[in-house]
Amino acid sequence: MGAVNLGIGIGTVLSGLGTGRPAVTLAYDHGMWDIEDAGVISIGGYFGNAGYSYKDAGYSQKWNYWLVGARGAYHHHGFKSVPQLDPYVGLMLGYNIVTYSSSGDYTGPNSYGSGIGYSIFLGSRWFFNDNFAAFAELGYGIAVLNAGVSFKF
Question: Global pTM?
Answer without folding.
Answer: 0.86
